[in-house]
Design goal:
Chain C: GO terms for molecular function: NADH dehydrogenase activity; oxidoreductase activity, acting on NAD(P)H, quinone or similar compound as acceptor; quinone binding. The complex is a heterotrimer of chains A (484), B (174) and C (339). Chain A has 23 helices and two strands. Chain A is mainly alpha-helical. The longest helix of chain A is centred in the middle third of the chain and has 32 residues. The radius of gyration of chain A is 22 Å and the shape is globular. The model of chain A has no long low-confidence stretch (mean pLDDT 85). The chains are: A mainly alpha (484), B mainly alpha (174), C mainly alpha (339).
């Protein structure tokens, strides 16, 4: 690089820094929250902080609006695609929803909680835009380390144990992934996604690239909690604060899948004869769906059940990557959005259960008759999680599986057919455990005389999510239009 | 020729030291000895970096891993160990699956090592006539600037999170 | 190689005289006369001490962790002495011309802590362990302001190599070219550096790790004879090392302090001709004598201030020195950009 080129390089770098406006708003806002925590310690401190966080989120979404142009930025380290702003809005909305959870009083006592939640959001912002492996890794660690801390935020022995467990597994997988990434760097000579394929093409022998990809994928699978890298997730989900879990179970997974999709797209463009990663991913997807759903069948603890359910859903989401077409990508993102909404609703209910010291699904007996509105909303959400009409879950599964079917018709690889058939079979399996909750809510009766309270806010929150899920079914094209 | 031989010799020496110390970590029952063996592992890895002309990386390895992480580890072990009174010993459980997994991984690596590593063409050296350290610095401030800033945010988050967890008294509900 | 051959014997001789000087300085400051019996003015006192130490039994406590106990003094000494590898002595004499100079130095010095922990743990004694804990907590905490203070100089000099930093302070006007005069605000980083370096070498007022009145001897309580002497040697080695770094970074390294005044070419006369023996001799003389002056200040501080408490030690580092150090890094950056 010559001196003049270097100066031009730096000039573009400085000129494009405004592109990071949403991220910078988020960072400044999160620091403001930490300082606010030190300055204001009144009686309504928790409420004030939540409001302040919402204001920060609002400012961030305004900033997202300010940078709508697609393309690569900051010398190709970041890139904005058509979906990036929409996904950012989606993430911001999810974060805002999570902040409204009823039982997070313990966590809200301290300003660090909101700060950490915002850091997860920041990490996912960078994950979906990263075009550079180093940046991707740093962003991923930002999300992961924040998650480790958040899991331990329930201040119980169990929470710390789960946090440590998560940390140990996470550190191991990060190490493997980093090894894979460094091999990719050695093979391609570049960390920029755009430059990797052409560099890799220089050598015809794929052995080392296969190893590097394998190690890299293992790290990603761990973060997605796919079978057999899922062992940490039920424990972590059970022990962590529900609000944080609702966030961690959606945002990082979606963000990583977006990056993973872009990465696998690159693999298709190289001429090198790689191992059949679609095949391997299919096995993992099938395994995740089976293990997730079958294990969820036996769970009585609501949070553990949702943990296994999220493993199964991660398997379904992975189909979008396996398909690898633009339609598959759209279907995956659609599914992700719907899954996020459903998840927020269900975890809200679980949080409410926790607030009333209900842990198990069997404790819910008869509650549906006491609170019909809540019961109906929950039923809608759970039906959607199964993937039955008339809910958004159905449209999402329909899209994902039809994209898979399209690809099968083109390539007629038999493993895709297996994936298709077993995926649909799994939806049927999931019916049994999801509907356990409505079953207990409405059909079982209890002798317990204990009375619970459901606030108007909770009903409105659950009704909103339920309505949203229904709306997505009836106006699926609207969401697709928003996404792309 | 003499020079090259010496480098390769030193490389194998340090690599062997690293592997042997790593095995000693595994075999040693005394957790303190394991930690001190880890010092040796890190030192030999740093030495390998320096032999392969990655001086800055080698020094950073010493600075970060030995000067930072390991001392913290020792501190942790010493604080927990003597307070309990009893000796802290490591133990090996589920040896068979661990050995199988290890052998499997070794096989994967071994079979890969059968082929030569196709190192990429890294292009001509920068014309800016800078030393390695300066090149690293320039890369940090230009191409990887976003990653650098994000690392700063990450470290701040880790600091706040760790300070908070360490400072909080957890309440056992039961 | 020459630097090594100069530094190692010099260190050994230095320690003997430094111990004597320490006693004499403390005596004069407290209006006493100090050792007088051995030799004229007690000048052979340290030699007698060394002889005594050599003859003492090398006691290893039964409950001690033998391997760690035996290795610890060596690890401490090796890590401190490795730091000398990158120090320049004059324009021509330098250990390793490593590009990472001062960075390497800071890294290997941190190995010192490993040795202290080995000693404290291996002794299997409460006093030793407490001493080691305190020592490590102190060294780790003070490494941060120390690093920040050094970073200020590095930002201004734009190099990590100690020899290049020295060469940037060459000039006919003697002390005018020193960093601390060229960049006057460096006085703040220097004070931070000096305080932190006292803590790094476990000197009073930061001698908590070996506070006699509380911990007997701290991490070296259980050591005797030659091993104890090695620990002592590394402690004085550390003092010399941090003084040398201070001289190189702030006080013109091996350059003469005397300016050329018209026809009275003091600087040229006291610098010698580069490439010839005279330059080497003058360079070595200046750098070492400046370092001796720094060591005198360290001793002065030692016999002037009382020991601080543990909490004071921590808050001084984290609440005062580190923020000020960070601020000074900013100041250095702005100075470099706009001055």
């Amino acid at each position: 690089m010559k001196q003049s080129e270097f100066i031009a390089y730096i000039t573009t770098l400085i000129g494009e820094f405004g592109y990071l406006l949403p991220e910078m708003t988020l960072i400044a806002g999160s620091l403001f929250l930490v300082v606010l925590d030190l300055l204001y310690k009144g009686t309504a401190a928790a409420t004030v902080r939540t409001l302040a966080t919402l204001v920060v989120l609002a400012a961030t979404s305004l900033a997202i609006d300010a940078a709508p142009i697609e393309g690569a930025y900051l010398n190709g380290v970041l890139a904005q695609t058509a979906v990036t702003p929409t996904l950012k809005y989606f993430f911001v909305l999810m974060t805002a929803a999570v902040l409204l959870y009823p039982n997070s009083r313990v966590q809200r006592r301290t300003g660090e909680y909101q700060y950490l939640i915002l850091m997860v959001l920041l990490g996912t912002f960078f994950l979906i835009q990263a075009q550079n492996l180093l940046l991707f890794y740093v962003a991923l660690e930002l999300v992961s380390i924040t998650s480790y801390v958040l899991i331990a935020f329930s201040f119980q022995r169990k929470g710390f144990e789960a946090g440590i467990k998560y940390l140990l597994f996470g550190a191991m997988s990060s190490g493997l992934m980093l090894y894979g990434l460094s091999l990719i760097y050695g093979l391609s000579g570049s960390l920029d996604l755009a430059l990797i394929p052409q560099m890799v093409a220089q050598s015809s022998d794929p052995t080392w690239l296969n190893l590097a990809l394998m190690l890299f994928f293992v790290g990603i699978f761990f973060k997605l909690a796919l079978v057999p890298f899922h062992i940490w997730s039920p424990d972590a989900y059970e022990a962590g604060p529900t609000a944080a879990i609702a966030l961690i179970s959606v945002l990082p997974k979606v963000a990583i899948l977006v990056f993973f999709y872009q990465f696998t797209q690159l693999l298709d463009t190289t001429d090198v004869e790689l191992f059949n990663w679609q095949y391997a991913l299919s096995i993992l997807a099938i395994g995740s769906m089976f293990v997730g759903n079958l294990s969820a069948l036996r769970q009585n603890n609501a949070k553990r059940m949702m943990a296994y359910s999220s493993i199964a859903h991660a398997g379904t989401l992975l189909i979008g990557v396996i398909v690898g077409t633009a339609f598959g990508y759209e279907a995956m993102l659609f599914y992700a959005v719907v899954y996020g909404v459903m998840n927020v609703g269900v975890f809200y209910f679980i949080d409410w259960m926790e607030k009333n010291e209900l842990e198990n699904i069997s404790d819910l007996a008869g509650l549906g008759r006491q609170f019909p509105a809540v019961g109906v909303c929950m039923t809608v959400l759970l039906v959607s999680l199964v993937g039955l009409p008339p809910t958004g879950g159905f449209s999402a599964k329909l899209l994902v599986f039809s994209s898979l079917w399209d690809v099968y018709l083109q390539s007629s690889d038999s493993y895709l057919l297996w994936l298709f058939a077993l995926g649909i079979l799994n939806s049927a399996i999931s019916l049994f455990y999801y509907l356990k909750i409505p079953y207990y809510l409405f059909l079982k009766t209890t002798n317990s005389t204990q009375r619970y309270r459901v606030g108007a806010v909770s009903v409105v929150f659950l009704a909103c999510t339920a309505l949203l899920v229904l709306a997505i079914f009836f106006m699926a094209d609207l969401l697709l239009e928003m996404l792309f | 020729m003499e020079q090259i031989n010496f480098n390769i010799l030193a490389f194998y020496g340090f690599a062997g030291l690293a592997v042997i110390s790593a095995l000693m970590i595994l075999m040693s029952k005394n957790i303190i000895h394991s930690v001190f063996m880890l010092v040796l592992v890190f030192l030999s890895v740093a030495a390998i970096y320096i032999i392969t002309n990655a001086e800055f990386v080698g020094v950073t390895q010493i600075m970060v891993y030995i000067g930072g992480i390991l001392i913290l580890m020792m501190f942790g072990v010493m604080l927990t160990n003597r307070i309990d009174g009893g000796k802290m010993l490591t133990e090996h459980r589920r040896i068979i699956p661990a050995v199988l997994l290890g052998l499997g991984l070794a096989f994967v690596f071994y079979s890969t090592l059968q082929t030569k590593f196709p190192l990429a063409e890294f292009g001509p050296q920068s014309e800016l006539d800078k030393s390695v350290t300066e090149t690293i610095g320039i890369n940090f401030m230009t191409h990887q600037l976003v990653a650098l800033e994000l690392t700063a945010v990450l470290l701040l988050m880790a600091l706040i999170g760790a300070a908070f967890l360490a400072g909080s008294k957890f309440e056992d509900k039961k | 190689m020459i630097a090594f051959l100069i530094y190692l014997p010099f260190l050994l001789v230095f320690v003997i005289f430094a111990v004597y000087a320490e006693r004499k300085v403390s005596a004069f400051m407290q209006d006493r006369i100090g050792p007088m019996e051995t030799g004229k003015f007690g000048i052979l006192q340290s030699f007698a001490d060394v002889l005594k130490m050599m003859q003492k039994e090398d006691i290893i406590a039964l409950a001690a962790d033998r391997k760690l106990f035996l290795m610890a003094p060596l690890v401490i000494f090796v890590s401190v002495f490795t730091g000398y590898a990158v120090l320049p002595l004059s324009a021509d004499i330098q250990g390793s011309a490593a590009e990472t100079g001062i960075y390497f130095l800071l890294a290997v010095i941190s190995l010192d802590v490993i040795g202290i922990l080995m000693a404290g743990w291996g002794s299997n004694s409460k006093f030793s362990l407490f001493g080691a804990m305190r020592s490590v907590a102190q060294i780790v905490s003070y490494e941060i302001p120390l690093g920040l203070a050094i970073l200020c100089v590095i930002m201004l000099m734009q190099t990590l190599s100690l020899q290049e930093i020295s060469l940037q302070q060459v000039g006919g006007l003697g002390f005018i070219h020193w960093n601390i005069i060229q960049y006057p605000f460096l006085i703040v980083p220097f004070v931070i550096y000096f305080i932190a370096s006292l803590a790094e070498s476990n000197r009073t007022p930061f001698d908590l790790p070996e506070a006699e009145s509380e911990l007997i001897g701290g991490f070296h309580t259980e050591y005797s004879g030659f091993r104890w002497a090695v620990i002592m040697l590394s402690e004085y080695g550390m003092m010399l090392l941090v003084s040398l770094i201070a001289v190189i970074l702030f006080f013109g390294s091996w350059n003469t302090p005397l300016p050329n005044l018209g026809p009275v070419r003091l600087a040229d006369w006291t610098s010698g001709t580069v490439g010839q023996l005279s330059a080497d001799v003058w360079g070595t003389f200046w750098i070492l004598s400046k370092a001796m002056l720094m060591i005198f200040v360290q001793m002065w501080v030692r016999w002037t201030y009382p020991r601080i408490r543990v909490d004071q030690m921590m808050s001084l580092s984290w609440k005062y020195l580190t923020p000020i150090g960070l601020f000074m890094v900013f100041v250095s950056g702005f100075w470099k950009l706009w001055m």
